[in-house]
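Supplementary Methods S3. Input chains for the assembly prediction are listed below.
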Amino acid sequence: MKPADSHPRGARHLYVHLPFCAHRCGYCDFVTLVGRDGQHGVYVDALLAELELERAELAPTVETVYLGGGTPTLTRPDALARLLRTLPTAGEVTVEANPETVTPELARLLRGSGVTRISLGAQSFRPHLLEVLERRARPEDVRRAFYHLRDAGFDNVSLDLIYGIPGQSAADLERDLADVLALGPEHVSAYELEAKPGTRFTHAHGAELARQAEAMETYYESVVETLTAAGYRWYETANFCRASESAGGRDLRARHNLGYWLGRDYLGIGVGAVSTIGDTRRRNTPRLSLYLRELGRGGAPPRELEVVKPATRRIERVMLGLRLDEPIPVAGLEDALDPAGLVRVESLGLIRRARTRAGQTLALTARGRLLGDGVTAELLA
Amino acid sequence: MDLSHIRNFSIIAHIDHGKSTLADRILELTNAVSERDMRAQVLDSMDLERERGITIKAQAVRVFWKEHELNLIDTPGHVDFTYEVSRSLQACEGALLVVDAAQGTEAQTLANTYLAIENDLEIVPIVNKIDLPQANPDGAATELAELIGDDPDRVLRISAKTGYGVEALLDAAIERIPPPSGDPSAPGRALIFDSSYDQYRGVVAFVRVVDGVFETGEPVKAMATGTRFDAEELGYMAPARTPTTRLGAGEVGYVITGLKDVSRLRVGDTITQQRQPAAEPLPGYKDVKPMVFAGLFPTDSDDYPELRDALEKLKLNDGALFYEPETSQALGFGFRCGFLGLLHMEIVRERLEREFDLDLLVTAPNVAYRVKPAYADWIEVHNPAEMPRELELVEEPYVKASIIVPKEYVGQIMELCNERRGRYDHLEYLSPERVHLTYELPLGEIVLDFYDQLKSRTRGYASFDYDLAGFRDGSLVRVDVLVGGEQVDALSLIVHRDFAYDRGRALVEKLKEEIPRQMFDVAIQAAIGSRVIARETVKAKRKDVLAKCYGGDITRKRKLIEKQKAGKKRMKQVGGVEVPQEAFLAVLNLNESRR
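Predicted structure tokens for the full assembly:
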């Protein structure tokens, strides 16, 4: 049996990983590579070779393509252009960009290569916080990059914001939010900084973060309140888009990411990229040399495989679906849910059950969304 | 052997004052054990005893010295086993009183010496470790002589370690200690002063025959418990079991009973023949009752059967251990166990963890209470959660505590005893430097951390012993703890009315630290009946999400949530609140926060 949302004719979402960065930020835990300018061309060759190998996994029509990193926009322009030309066309093509890499030429190149959406890694507009994050861009770089994108014709730009940065005061956050709103992006992703154990960042800032933890507990609420008050729709735990009524009726949610959250199949290519197709989830080797070698020989890159049984997929469906503002239908997910837990969180006003013509649905209340992980743990069987 | 050539004695000494070393030297000197076979400290047979330097179970060893049969009866060295010590002493005519030349007399030694004097034993005073550089043999000898009313010149000076003076000591024992008296032709009477369990042969009783003669195979009975059995084998320890055909008046030895239940043969009971029983048992039998109680729960509830089996096995060797199943709504299935005292509890707990490899959660210990509920008869309560709410009278056990300290700490000791509702009884100077204080204290005030406090306030110099002094009226109340509005049985405690507020406050504060924040506010209350005396709130979490979740994060994210879910399962649910197991130990650590 195929899970409800996995498409019978292959994945409609394609992720492409571009690992190159000018500098590895301390907090980052993605697969990234510093330097290696000379390898951009070979890497794109390998990507396209992998795409060829996996072509059968893709649906005839691809809905979204997402180029993430790393810093995709650091990839040498000729290699990037060649890649974009060769990738399947799609209704939404997103590229992640670091502000300091965005020049008018690059913006035009992206626009001219069929890219429809840019996710700009602003993170903060406070110089001292950018420094803590080891970001190279200054606040003025962020603004300049944004204008270059607008000038090139991009009408769907997302800004990434990080909060909970060591040393960040409530006033700092308020100013960052004001700076975001002043630019008026179509979409905002606001992430709490996650200091993972064992990282260089945690080593340097862990103690400071622990000290501030209590003061920062309300930052998430502030982000939600400020952005929703400014007319943004809080459509996913960490994601906001301009509500369609203030956007000429456009649905500005990130369609590619919605694919993940709705439990759809996706194909990921590149070092460290993850795919989920049917009951298989696989992760490509994070090692560039291995990746290049195997694809150079015409074989698939080494992969870590995980079997995602239908029961597991249902758990994920609940876990991911509850991140969204739209209710999830309960039908088919019953055995992933603990009825007693459901009653508990409902009585605490954290979840709302509704009965529609299509059957019962579940959605977190506003407070439930702030406590999403705990609520999910509570109501999973 | 005729009675005039028998000497029965024990050694009284404080921990580390050299009792075991002296016993070893005696065994060596009398060739009972060759030096090569000598396992250091033969008498202490359990590892635990060896490690903690205490003797838990007494044993008796027979040696020969200059045409005399000497029975060396070992005595348990700790406060919880006073009754066993008194029975061991009752089996003797004399005692070697050993004191460390550097440290002088300690409270336990004092208590056991008084017991020996009460039993009319001839006391042979000995100063040990005279070879140590910091030794003060003259000072220690003077103190000893004064204590027992003897001449300082008669105090023997030895070094058990080097063997110096040990031969003279054996000579003195023969010369000073009287031979046993008893009537060999009277009906048999043998005092059980200890017992152990042999998995193949059942209960082995250690006895001192007072009257008559016992023969192998004879049908006998224990007079107090009425237990009947055959004396399957008689013998003595040399130090290995050595069978003989008979044990006569004045002799010390063992009886193999074949009994499978150690509780059917109690220390202090008298064995007599079934055929021609003695008219009267020997005096002094007491049914020792556990006074300290605690709940023992397996950390992993799946281990409950293992815990039950382990307790069953321990009980075979430890007649004083009491246990019955207990169900706690918070901690699940376990046992309420009764102990003679705190050390006994510690020993049982350690043996369960070490010998049976169990992971245990032990609730705060409490004492036995005698309670007169309204409209009902007196009952004994072993568990605070079972204390009736409506009652007329409560009685709690008191002890007579004996404390010896250097004089500069007298103030601290008095302060501590006053804080613990002690009633001052007596103070005397043992020497110009050392003071002996006696207090009457509620046992309930001692069970938590009295000993630690005593030691920490005197930089370790105080020594302490106690003896039960019976039940007294107590102005006691039951304090309940409510989490999320629901009472937590495992956290109830019984305290003196005057301390109820402070203890209740300290407890809720401690729990506030232990209970993690949840998705809602959690009220923690301490209450007497329906009156809340302290309250704290664990504020609800404001957020609980890891922000990012894209294609590559899904597995990790799912595992995190599954872990969170598993973590919830490990916690105990009380009134919808997840309470970690550690919180239940909060009561135990209360005293840290008390000061």
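The domain at 13-261 of chain A is CATH 3.80.30.20 (pyruvate-formate lyase- activating enzyme). The two ends of chain A are 21 Å apart (CA to CA).
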